[in-house]
Specification:
Elements (H helix, E strand, L loop, with lengths): L1 H34 L8 H32 L5 H17 L4 E2 L4 E2 L4 H21 L35
Antiparallel strand pairs: 1-2
Helix pairs in contact: 1-2, 1-4, 2-3, 3-4
């Protein structure tokens, strides 16, 4: 039963991390355009649509690498915030490099834009931190046995003894 609850926590943490990463990616990619509006009105519906697509896009690309990081951290009880930040950075890097064409003849990625690489890696780091806040702090806790309930403390010696009631037959 604890495993089922843990899966829901992991799923919620993953979705929250993808939402934060999507907001970061969309905000930083669109930042140069925001500064060129010269005080013009920004349509909030368009921003909501762009954020929604960013969330869907990142959650689809990040699912497999993030699942690998989650499985490793759950299996080895890794609860360090640094491990999740590094894992998130690696997931962000993997998502970006998954979009760039790879030339197998030269063993190089063609067309890497350094700014975009930094944005995706930074968004992955922040997403890893958000995931740690929600689910990573208790990684592997579902496998630990429950602590037994402590018995109530003994009554003080000068307290009255509760009356004994005979059982009715």
């Amino acid at each position: 039963m604890a495993l089922i609850g843990r899966l829901f926590v992991i799923l919620f943490g993953f979705l929250a991390a993808c939402l934060v990463a999507g907001i970061i990616v969309v905000g930083t990619v669109l930042f140069p355009e925001f500064s060129d509006f010269a005080g013009g009105v920004i349509d909030p519906d368009a921003i909501n649509i762009v954020l929604g697509f960013g969330f869907i896009f990142l959650s689809g690309f990040a699912l497999l690498p993030a699942t690998i990081v989650v499985l490793i951290t759950e299996a080895f009880y890794i609860r360090s915030v640094l491990a999740y930040a590094i894992g998130g950075g690696i997931v962000g890097l993997a998502c970006y490099l998954g979009l760039i064409p790879f030339d197998p003849d030269t063993l190089r990625f063609d067309g890497i834009v350094r700014r975009h690489l930094e944005i995706m890696t930074g968004a992955g780091i922040v997403a890893g931190l958000v995931y740690w806040l929600i689910a990573g702090r208790n990684a592997g806790a579902w496998r630990e046995p429950r602590r037994p309930l402590r018995p109530p403390p003994p009554l003080p010696s000068h307290s009255p003894v509760p009356p004994h009631t005979p059982s009715s037959s």
